[in-house]
Design goal:
277 residues; mainly alpha; binds fe (ii) ion; 52% helix; globular; single chain
Length: 277
């Protein structure tokens, strides 16, 4: 299949965004995470630019640096999008929120996961894979550190075990190629981090565990579909996945966050990021 047009990441722009001082202090792993988040930010900008509003004055480079430093001083880089200062007014959630409500009111535009899931759908992959792709990075709205593990935990009570297993291990697997499915080590990582990048030992160990597991392909296909999730200016519609969600996500009647599941508090956190204690 022909590769899609992916968003361009200019090394210098990326480094400038992160901050030269900050990049020097980062491990390779942190830089890989930072790149992925930067790409998603650029992707969402490509379908829903933030410009035009009253609060969106264009900052000169000095002001931009001050604003960035202020933001960095306030929020560690592993902080989820909903906890970053961005001036966005969150709409209230319904009393018994569904996954669809979370997509529309908290995860939107969710461009990257929708594109990944759409690729899985259009290439006739199993519904469990489509579901996994749809959910694989939504936890980045809450937390970015070790997002495969957090992301799996978030959805574990509501999906087939293979779906959450795949989400957990997609994060370590993305650093390791698998020619059998056409997944190459992302060229982007070479350009940004250099050819000598070596993932941390716990990442390697998780990869080796997953590689030898009968469910390996559940995680591997997420990493493959992920590479189709960075197409500029494409915003897939959530509606095409509503039936698949209905069949593959056990929506609690009390609403996500109110069913006393092991991850209910995480859904409440996403619903109410401004609530203290
Ligand atoms: Fe991911
Ligand atoms: Fe992803």
């Amino acid at each position: 299949m022909e590769r899609p047009k992916v968003i361009e990441v200019d090394r210098r722009t990326f480094l400038a965004t992160v901050g030269v001082g900050a990049i020097g202090a980062m491990s390779h792993e942190d830089r890989a995470e930072e790149l992925e988040h930067y790409m998603m930010h650029k992707l969402e900008e490509s379908v829903a630019p933030h410009g035009g509003g009253e609060d969106s004055a264009i900052l000169d480079p000095y002001e931009a640096r001050l604003a960035r430093e202020e933001q960095e001083a306030r929020a560690p880089r592993g902080t989820g999008n909903l906890f970053m200062p961005n001036g966005r007014q969150l709409e209230p959630m319904p009393a018994r929120p569904t996954l669809e409500d979370f997509f529309r009111l908290r995860f939107a535009p969710a461009t990257h996961v929708l594109q990944s899931a759409q690729h899985a759908l259009q290439t006739d992959q199993p519904e469990s894979t489509i579901m996994a792709c749809l959910l694989h990075d939504v936890v980045l709205n809450m937390i970015k550190v070790d997002h495969g593990w957090w992301g799996a935990q978030l959805v574990e009570p509501y999906v087939d075990e293979k779906v959450s297993w795949g989400i957990r291990y997609h994060a370590p697997l993305r650093f390791y190629p698998d020619e059998s499915v056409g997944y190459e080590y992302p060229e982007m990582y070479n350009r940004i981090f250099g050819e000598d990048y070596v993932p941390e030992p716990y990442i390697r160990e998780a990869y080796e565990y997953a590689r030898d597991h009968p469910w390996y392909m559940e995680a591997r296909m997420i990493t493959l579909n992920d590479t189709y999730g960075f197409q500029e200016g494409v915003q897939p519609d959530l509606d095409q996945f509503i039936d698949i969600i209905g069949r593959n996500f056990r929506q609690p009647p009390e609403g996500l966050g109110y069913d006393n599941s092991p991850s209910a508090h995480m859904w409440r956190t996403i619903a109410n990021p401004n609530r203290p204690l």
